[in-house]
Every structure is written in structure tokens, then in C-alpha cells.
Structure prediction request, 597 residues.
Amino acid sequence: MKISFPPLKKLNPSTKRPFCKICFKDITSPSLTSLNKENINICNDCFKKMEYSLKEEIYYEHKLIYLNNYTPFFSSLLIQYKETLDIELAPIFLERYAMLFHLLFFTYKLVLIPSSQSNIDRRGFNHLEEMTKCLNLEYLNVLYKEEGSPQKHLGHKQRLKSKSLFHIKQGNKITNKKILLFDDVLTTGTSLKACLDLIEKYKPKKVVILILSKVIS
Amino acid sequence: MNYKCPICGNEDSKYIGYRNSLPYCRKCINFSGKKVASSFKHSSNIKLTIDYQLSAEQESLAIKVRDNFINKKNCLIHAVTGAGKTELVYYTIEYALMNKLNVGFAIPRKDVVIDLYPRVQQAFKEAKVVYVVGEHTLLLQGDIILLTTHQLYRYENYFDLLIIDEIDAFPYKNNQILNNFALKSIRGNYILLSATPSSEDIKKIKENNGEVFTLMKRYHNSPLPVPRYLKPKIHIFISVYIELKRLLNRGKQVFVFVPTISIGKKLYIFLKYLIKDGKEVDSQVSQREEIISDFRKGRYKYLVTTSILERGVTVKGLQVIVTYADHTLYTKEALIQIAGRVGRKKDEREGEVIFIGNEENENIVSAIEEIKSINKKAFL
Prediction:
């Protein structure tokens, strides 16, 4: 008996194969992420290099979740994203955890640690917002940051001393809500603590802090 | 929509991203750092001082190269490994410095740049020589700027004389971005140096207002060491051990080249227990500059190395073993370069180059043939 196969379906040549946003290689072995998402942006090899692993801590009586210990590879990616303004990298940071965090926090409202207006203007985008878009959570823009001298040249002590530049507007929006507070890197915690204090004044139901990378000193 | 990156000339849509719906190039995005803006005030009266004599061939060619530059022409110097290529451009550099022109010396490999720095400073004592490589970029300007080809993007339309050494080396070769940066950095003329230029390189330079100069003799007038092919008997590692032991017993230092890092690690684990005083070096080893300088001082007897040491390294009395010489990574050019590590010093003109591989393939045969034919041409 002769077996005849139906002709293979012709692929549209314009169909773009997904490629990794970091190493530019084609993504051949898809991950679990591709089950619920069409666009995948990072390959398994590069994801492994990022050395993500979910860790939890208690930070001023709130749950703090972080993924990375500020490894050199992660740091170079973050610099490429934030400083050389490579916005295409935005989805890679949370892509692999998007499903998990969406499920864990779908009752939460997302509050971002704010950047100053001059930084947003310089970048042309809000870097935290672009990163967290894949989580599909509702944002509450209540925190703002005044213009001030950048922190990165200050030492640990000076950072703690410097006056807080953060303030809150329409704080009653967060009253009795579950809040997910998000930032990219936690160094000394000055910004985070200031924002946490501001939020707590308006009595949210619960606050969970999500950080991509925690610097272990 | 077609967008062409104005910096690196990339058109591939894969590397183009969109920021606020404006296209930008992601291929060269990491080449963003401080650029040279102001002009540099050159020191005057810089003289070339070398305490050794150039050979007659070197001398005459060096003058030709200088005159070529004075006539505002480009050139490609095709000189065998160990011919003393660097010395050939010294007169040209001296001429350029006397006329207060911007001089750059670019090399694809970081290690080679760092290696070259003291030599150039020694030759031009009054000049301010700076080297600019990754993680060493605070000082960008000087009378003579030594740099990797990766750093050329900082110098747009800057160099009146740009010398590019080892043009056939990774990563410069066939790299559109780096080639574009080099072109953009040149304001005057350029000199390309290579021991193994492709016919394409030669064709290109002739089209671009250039000359080709050749030097087939080493500066000490001895022929290039001719490599020997060896078929491993039981296992390639055992053959490497036997040959290595034999060379070390003569009191020589040895480079053992391996095609990949993982092979290098395996081989070194094997050799470590049999022969002491060795070290393994590859691009992932961060203290490799230290290891190499220790090797020069004689602290190590042998180094297991990947292709990072295939170029630009001069060690007195060095012998070379190439493992898996039939590996696809070893092109004819790479093998010639590796063989060129041997016998570079005046008082150590001879040495052994051993290619060990399971198969004597075309690259091995043609590399050996080419070295033989160069020797023939040089000593007619």
C-alpha cells in the first residue's frame, strides 16, 4: 500500500521567527512562557545567564520578593536598558515570571517607585512601567519624585542623610487596597523606605514589595 | 520601512528596535561612550629613539612606507610573522608626529594592545602614548593612541594616520560594525598590517588609492620555522604529553594551543598531574595578563591556551604544539600565525612547531606549504 502524505503547508516567508533580544539567535526550544504568550523575547541560554531565582525576605514587616543578586550579567543588561535606552530589552526582565506574578498578584494594584520627570524625559519612557507591562496589572500612579541631585555618587551614609524627594498625591486611592510596590534594584533601600512610609500613611490593606535585583553588600 | 543605522550601517531589521516609534540600531548600541570632542595639543620635537638596528630590508621598506604616506596614499604591508612589522611604521609615525598629526594604532586584540604599549613608549620617549581598551578608557587623547578596533567609534573623523594591525584577526575581520568605525575614524590615510592578508584585502587596497608592500624575510635573516604534522598514536592527549615532555626537557617554554576552552580545560586537567608548572589561559580567565607576564619571567614552563595568544605575542625561545590542528577553527591563516610565534628573537631563531591532529587536512597542508614557499622566496 502506498502512503501519501499531504503536501506540507507552505510557510509565509514574512512570518518572523522569534529571536532572542540579547544574543539575537533564533529561539528554537520554547519555554513554558510561550504557552500563554506569542511573543517571546529571551532564549533559554540567556535566561540561565541572568541567574534568576525567586527569594523572599521580610522588609519592615512586609514581604519582599527578589529574583537576582545583582550579578554582573544582570547589571550589564540593566545598564544597557536604562542608560543606553535599549527599550527593546524591557520585556525580558519579567517575562519568565509574568505568568506566576500575574496569578499571585492579580488582586493587587501596582505602584512603581517613581523617577524624576527629568529622567523620564531623558529616557523617553518610564523604565519601570515598560518592564512591568507584561504583568498585566492595574497601575496606581500616586507617588512622585522631585528633581534632585542623583544618588549614585553618594556614599551609603550620605544617601541615608539626604532629604527625601518623594511625595504622594491622591493617597486615598490606595486605602484598603492590596499594593504591589515595584523597583528594579534595591541598594541601600532609601528610596524604597521613603516610599513605603508614604504609602503606609494611607493604610493599604497589604503591601508586597517586588524587586528585580538586590545588592548584597 | 528601511532604516539604515547611520553609525554602523546596519540594515537588518532584526537589530532594529523602536523607541517611541522611532527606529534605533541595537547592533551598535553598546558602542556608546565618551567620544573625543576637543583637539589635542601635541607635544613638539618628538624623536624616534630605538637602541637596535633595523635590518636593511626593514630600513628600506620603512622609508618607502613613509614616502607613501607623505604622498597621501594608503598602504597594506604584507610581512611574515616575526618580520618586525611594528618597526616598519615607526618612521611614518615620527613624520606624522613632527607635523603634529593625530596618530592612531589599532589592533583587534586587547592583549596585543597592552603588549605593544611599552614598546611604543620606549621608541618615542618624549611622546605621550596612551592606550585605550575596554575598561581602560579614562584618557582618550595623546600623541600616539594605541587602541582596540572596538574603541575606534570614539574617534570620528580624527586620525590623520591610522595604522591597523592584524586586519585578518577576529573580531575585526568581516565585522561590518568595526570596519565601519575604522573608516569613519580616518581623516587622512591609513596603513594596514598583516601576515596573512586575503586576496580580497589586497584587491580592496589597490582600489582605494593604496599600495601593497611585502616583506618576506624575518628581521634576523633566518627562515620561518616549518611546522611538522604528527598523527597521534593512542590518544591525542598522550601524544601531546610525549611531545611536551620532550620539548620541556630541552629547557624550552611551550605554548599548547587548543581549539576550544572546554578542550583546553580537559587537556590541562590531564597534563597538570604529569607535568608541573603549567597554566591554562583563555578569554574567560581574568588575570591572563598576569599569567602571561609570569610566563615571560619563566615562572611557568608551559601554557595551555586558546587562540587568544595566537597573535602578537613574542616570547624568547618559545616552542609550539597545536592540538586538534584539523579542527575547523584552525584556518590556514590561524595556523601560519601560530607557527609564527616561534623563533622571533635574534638569539633564539629556531624552534619546533608541531601540529597534532587526527587527520592531515587541507588547512594543515596548505599552511605548511605556504611557509615553505615564503622561505623559498625570501632566500632565493
